[in-house]
């Protein structure tokens, strides 16, 4: 981390620490009560929570930052419902610090995680015990309201505080990080929090009954780990496909790498959430995968018959079909399929119009066409200059290309040229206007 990022990390951690002080003061002043529980049950829940923490099931990425999801979420929620706020805070604080020290996390991560759970569990316990009635049925009206308030606070407080940290670390918009975090983790939360409710309910009936939930914990852990393994396998398959592309068609692979560079820059300008950005970027690398099945003679041929042109046009559908079986990459598959759609609906294969075209496909369309125009191609005498290519993009705003994306991309390209960064341009590219040969808009990338 650079100094500026470290400074803002600690500013945010300090802010959350101030909230911790407020939470502790609030818990002391309100002083809610809870049914008596033998002290050694604290040790039992503490050990179980630490074991769960040391075995994460899902890693969520936000830029270079990561957050781990573990089945301990169910236990921490039940702790908030069983014990008073101060006791619950003490349990989860010890659990978090011990787990983080055991996994050798940085000091700022240990501090933030401890602060986070003090706020989340303290507030959850405070709300639950303020509204719950120990003498009423566990799912009676009063207790159900208390549970819903506790769940709502738990989810919102954790999402908001974590999203704030990831926004600082990744320098992305808070709103996009929050939406991405919710989209990637809501299923895990939906599975774990009801389990936490069940633990609290069984503990209220008979503490020993929670032992019957141990198989459920194990099965849930295995299920979530399998999902994570499937994601890793999907990424491995995508990387192998990139290797195939590079070995079969080096020119196409180099073009795809440059398109990827431009796509990354556009996604950053849009403040795109990292998981969505990763999908778009991977699709950019694979958007011409279908061309590996076409002969090099056809790809380099200056003049194409109508039949040959339709063969090349079919590469986006072929690329998409090669990605069909990757369930976790269906968003990327759709982007690949539609990267030759036009904003005015005259593209292919499905003649989608405007924002019906996936955003990733619209982004790739701009970057793909620009690189095709400034790069060397067998079907024209010479490549266009950067200025000429940008002019064509501007002329096709709202026709072939998304107008907003053309504006963003033009700004990115001009900034690269202004600072002399030509690393993402083809070799020997020319910047200034010349009497270069014309080029048909919509040229194959």
List how many beta strands DSSP finds.
2
Strand order, biggest sheet? 1-2
| Radius of gyration based on Cα positions | 27 Å
Order of helices and strands: HHEEHHHHHHHHHHHHHHH
Mean pLDDT: 80
> How many angstroms separate the termini?
37 Å
Number of domains: 2
Helix content: 55-70%
**How much strand content do the residues show?**
under 5%
Number of helices: 17
Low-confidence residue ranges: 1-5, 434-445
CATH class of the largest domain: Mainly Alpha
CATH architecture of the largest domain, by name, is Orthogonal Bundle
Would you tell me which CATH topology of the largest domain applies? Arp2/3 complex 21 kDa subunit ARPC3
Structural class computed from helices and strand pairing: mainly alpha
Summarize the helices and strands and which ones pair or pack.
Blueprint: H1 3-30, H2 40-53, E1 58-62, E2 65-69, H3 72-82, H4 85-102, H5 107-131, H6 141-170, H7 174-205, H8 214-248, H9 250-270, H10 274-286, H11 296-300, H12 306-313, H13 315-322, H14 330-337, H15 359-374, H16 386-395, H17 403-418
Q: What would the keywords be for this entry?
A:
445 residues; mainly alpha; Arp2/3 complex 21 kDa subunit ARPC3; Hypothetical protein af1432; two-stranded antiparallel ribbon; disordered N terminus
Give a concise summary.
The protein has helices at residues 3-30, 40-53, 72-82, 85-102, 107-131, 141-170, 174-205, 214-248, 250-270, 274-286, 296-300, 306-313, 315-322, 330-337, 359-374, 386-395, 403-418, and strands at residues 58-62, 65-69. With 445 residues, it is an all-alpha fold. The chain has 2 domains: 3-232, Arp2/3 complex 21 kDa subunit ARPC3 (Orthogonal Bundle); 249-418, Hypothetical protein af1432.
């Amino acid at each position: 981390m650079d100094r500026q990022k470290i400074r803002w990390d600690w500013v945010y951690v300090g802010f959350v620490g101030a909230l911790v002080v407020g939470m502790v003061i609030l818990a002391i002043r309100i002083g809610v009560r809870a049914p008596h529980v033998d002290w050694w049950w604290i040790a039992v829940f503490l050990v179980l929570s630490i074991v769960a923490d040391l075995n994460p099931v899902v890693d969520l990425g936000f830029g270079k930052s990561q957050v781990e999801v573990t089945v301990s979420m169910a236990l921490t929620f039940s702790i908030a419902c069983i014990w008073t706020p101060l006791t619950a805070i003490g349990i989860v604080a010890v659990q978090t610090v011990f787990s983080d020290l055991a996994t050798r996390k940085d000091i700022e991560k240990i501090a933030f995680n401890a602060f986070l759970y003090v706020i989340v569990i303290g507030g959850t316990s405070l709300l639950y015990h303020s509204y719950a009635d120990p003498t009423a049925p566990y799912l009676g009206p009063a207790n159900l309201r208390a549970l819903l308030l506790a769940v709502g606070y738990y989810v919102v407080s954790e999402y908001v505080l974590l999203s704030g940290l990831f926004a600082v670390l990744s320098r992305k918009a808070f709103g996009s990080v929050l939406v991405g975090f919710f989209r990637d983790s809501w299923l895990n939360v939906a599975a774990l929090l009801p389990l936490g409710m069940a633990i609290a309910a069984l503990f209220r009936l008979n503490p020993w009954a929670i032992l019957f939930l141990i198989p459920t914990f194990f099965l849930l852990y295995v299920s979530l780990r399998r999902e994570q393994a499937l994601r890793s396998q999907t990424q491995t398959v995508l990387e192998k496909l990139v290797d195939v592309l590079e070995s079969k068609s080096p020119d196409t692979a180099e073009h795809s790498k440059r398109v990827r560079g431009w796509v990354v820059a556009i996604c950053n300008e849009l403040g795109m959430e990292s998981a969505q950005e990763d999908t778009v970027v991977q699709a950019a690398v694979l958007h011409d995968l279908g061309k590996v099945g076409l002969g090099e003679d056809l790809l380099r041929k200056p003049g194409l018959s109508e039949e040959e042109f339709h063969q090349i046009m079919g590469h986006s559908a072929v690329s998409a079909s090669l990605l069909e079986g990757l369930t976790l990459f269906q968003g990327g598959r759709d982007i690949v399929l539609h990267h030759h759609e036009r904003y005015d609906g005259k593209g292919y294969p499905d003649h989608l119009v405007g924002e019906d075209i996936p955003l990733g496909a619209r982004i790739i369309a701009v970057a793909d066409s620009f690189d095709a125009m400034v790069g060397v191609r067998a079907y024209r005498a010479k490549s266009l200059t950067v200025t000429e290519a940008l002019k064509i993009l501007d002329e096709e705003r709202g026709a072939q290309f998304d107008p907003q994306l053309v504006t963003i991309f033009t700004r990115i390209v001009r900034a690269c040229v202004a600072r002399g960064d030509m690393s993402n341009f083809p070799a020997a590219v020319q910047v200034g206007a010349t009497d270069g040969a014309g080029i048909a808009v919509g040229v194959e990338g």
